[in-house]
Amino acid sequence: MKLHPERPRRVDYRSDPDFLVACLVWLDHTFPKRRKRIAEWQRLERESDVDYVRERLRELLALDESTEEEDAEFARLAAVWKTNHHRQEIRP
């Protein structure tokens, strides 16, 4: 069993999917924070959508009890909403 995967070479694999999976395994091992950064970029992309932010804030406000994660998400989304709303008022 290899502890550290080597960088995959295309000639070592019969199909593209096998090669791509091996590349992902290698990337995850070589750059362990990669998935976390991808998730952050996806979150930022979602939060740039005004409709998503509005609906998610409504969902969080409708909760009877919230967890610490939900409270943190609400605070972050409220700040995003205020920032975006303020920008829209300034635009001519």
Number of strands: 0
Major beta sheet summary: none
Coarse morphology: elongated
Radius of gyration over all CA atoms, rounded: 21 Å
- State which percent range the strand residues make up: under 5%
Structural class: mainly alpha
Per DSSP, the total helix count is 4
Unreliable parts: none
Helical content stands at: over 70%
Sketch the topology as an H/E string, one letter per element. HHHH
| Separation of the first and last Cα atoms | 63 Å
Mind explaining what this structure looks like?
By secondary structure, the protein is mainly α. The protein is built from four helices and no strands. Helices cover 71% and strands 0% of the residues. It is elongated, with a radius of gyration of 21 Å. The N and C termini lie far apart (63 Å). The mean pLDDT is 84.
Spell out the blueprint of helices and strands:
Layout: H1 16-30, H2 34-47, H3 50-62, H4 68-90
Please outline what is shown here.
This protein is mainly alpha-helical and 92 residues long.
Keywords:
elongated; mainly alpha; single chain; 92 residues
